[in-house]
Specification:
By secondary structure, this protein is α+β, with helices and mostly antiparallel strands. It contains 12 helices and 9 strands. Strands 1, 2, 3, 4, 5 and 6 form a 6-stranded antiparallel β-sheet that branches.
């Protein structure tokens, strides 16, 4: 790997530290990170352009370093890699980090349609389980319930007017175990509604066996959200990304079926969280009736 870095980037580190995420090294008194790019190759130019816009507008993300061929991606053993200049943020993220990151509204005419995206996802998963589910009995047992949650979230989103809700920079996926370093990785940044990151962070906290009562109450009581954003937050909390992500890892044999019990064993406790949010909303605003939450 040292020869690759020397050749493609004209950098000469003394030590390279390999982790599950990639390769960290220091050169010229600066810290770099070389990571395998896991996304759609066709999107990398858009990611690069977005990160340049963010940097030019004083919104910090890790700068992407082009190789000596002026390319974003460097292919190493046929795998695409991206090099970033990084600052080492070792602290674990918290609710304040997420609120701060999602606080800056951005100019964007893009109309996001979660309902359409989620419907397409549900249709794909239903087709996939019909083909592969016979080999995954624990998935088959739980699948209908979580598809039902997804449909419920879709119905709620489709009842809302989303065109006036501001957009912010958010993350494709966010985990309660992420470090502050991960927060500024441009490869994981997207444009979305501000409630996206908070909902996914709280779901991750919950399924990592942490009490989310304090963070949830703090967010709902102090965040200046519109009615549509409150309801989008509820829809995002209902929508089972946590199940779908683990499902994908199991169905592709990266994890064992038994892993799904970490989620399905907490069904009742998670439903209580959703009902708590729903009942709180009903105390101060007109809320669409959701039968199973009454």
């Amino acid at each position: 790997m040292k020869n690759v870095i020397n050749y493609y980037y004209n950098l000469y580190p003394d030590n390279i530290h390999q982790t599950d995420q990639g390769y960290f090294f220091i050169a010229n008194d600066q810290r770099y990170f070389l990571t395998k790019y896991q996304g759609d190759i066709n999107n990398i130019k858009n990611i690069y352009d977005m990160h340049i816009y963010m940097l030019n507008n004083n919104f910090y993300v890790h700068p992407i370093i082009l190789n000596n061929q002026n390319q974003i991606l460097t292919y190493i053993n046929n795998d695409p890699y991206v090099l970033m200049l990084t600052i080492y943020y070792k602290n674990q993220i918290n609710i304040n980090d997420i609120i701060s990151f999602s606080s800056i509204q951005i100019p964007n005419n893009k109309l996001l349609n979660w309902g359409e995206l989620w419907s397409t996802k549900n249709d794909y998963l239903e087709y996939q389980i019909s083909m592969l589910g016979q080999n995954h009995p624990l998935i088959r047992e739980s699948f209908s319930y979580y598809i039902g949650l997804g449909e419920n979230a879709i119905q709620l989103v489709n009842s809302l007017k989303l065109n006036n809700i501001p957009l912010v920079y958010a993350h494709k996926r966010i985990n309660s175990n992420d470090k502050q370093y991960d927060l500024y990785n441009p490869l994981n940044i997207t444009v979305d509604f501000q409630i996206r990151d908070m909902a996914e962070y709280l779901k991750s906290l919950f399924f990592n066996n942490q009490d989310i009562t304090k963070e949830l109450n703090s967010y709902l009581n102090n965040k200046n959200l519109s009615k549509e954003e409150y309801l989008l937050f509820l829809a995002r909390m209902i929508y089972p990304t946590y199940y779908y992500d683990l499902y994908e890892e199991i169905i592709t044999n990266r994890k064992k079926d038994e892993e799904i019990k970490k989620i399905t064993d907490k069904v009742d406790d998670y439903e209580k969280i959703i009902k708590q949010i729903y009942n709180y909303y009903k105390s101060f605003m007109i809320t669409p009736q959701i039968e199973w939450l009454e």
